[in-house]
Amino acid sequence: MNRQAQAVIMLLFGGAILKASLSELYLRYVKEGLRPFLIGAGVLLVAAAVLTLWYDLRGRTAGPDRPAGPGGPDEDTTPGGHDEHGGHHHEPRVGWLLLLPVLGLLLVAPPALGSDAAGQAGTVLTAPGADSDYPTLPAGDPVDLGLLDYASRAVFDGGRSLTGRTLRLTGFVTPGPDGQPMLARMVMSCCAADGRPIKVALSGDVPAAVPADTWIQVVGGWTARTARDPVNQAEVPYLEVRSWQEVTPPKQQYE
């Protein structure tokens, strides 16, 4: 792989990052707040690739006018050129593997982490936060809650702030250990690589015969019933479902 090929791959890689970060695609990989850093990285890669190509092409054009000797026309020291014994310099071919993530970003739009990832990892609810005082929920029913907020209040606060309230949760369906559907959502600290699920078991009007990864919105109330996640033995709270409906996946699918 010579210098021009390296620059072209860098250009494609930077362009792929810019394409993802200037659309909503980047939300499948990183948190929303990292968008400016992705745009900056993409711009730097594109600029570096363009400068590398310009410098290399300018050097080749001026090659005949350079004096003989090291770096001159009598000796080609560019990657992939010839040494003084007439042999070829071969750069590691593993560099071509960089094309794989580039093609993945340009040609394929992989989905966000879903039920497969949720089934292989234990729920993220393993320890209470530093602040165990949960604020009162806003007035009006139903109250929209994130799955992590609901699970934390249900387990670590004993459901005190949830009692008597009608709650609305949104997530995707994932099979539970008993075969019954659960509501889940991936929690991401930085990027999809550290994503872990938060799970809420369902009772009452359970959405039966709904395929995994279907996004639904459930309305119900807190129940003291809990279960254990078979993956890490963490406590999983239940929600008593009163009604539910399928919904379009949200723009930001991670919590």
UniProtKB/TrEMBL annotation:
<dbReference type="InterPro" id="IPR015402">
    <property type="entry name" value="DUF1980"/>
</dbReference>
<dbReference type="InterPro" id="IPR052955">
    <property type="entry name" value="UPF0703_membrane_permease"/>
</dbReference>
<keyword id="KW-0812">Transmembrane</keyword>
<dbReference type="Pfam" id="PF21537">
    <property type="entry name" value="DUF1980_C"/>
</dbReference>
<keyword id="KW-1133">Transmembrane helix</keyword>
<feature type="transmembrane region" description="Helical">
    <location>
        <begin position="33"/>
        <end position="55"/>
    </location>
</feature>
<protein>
    <submittedName>
        <fullName>Membrane protein</fullName>
    </submittedName>
</protein>
<dbReference type="InterPro" id="IPR048447">
    <property type="entry name" value="DUF1980_C"/>
</dbReference>
<feature type="domain" description="DUF1980">
    <location>
        <begin position="163"/>
        <end position="254"/>
    </location>
</feature>
<feature type="region of interest" description="Disordered">
    <location>
        <begin position="62"/>
        <end position="89"/>
    </location>
</feature>
<keyword id="KW-0472">Membrane</keyword>
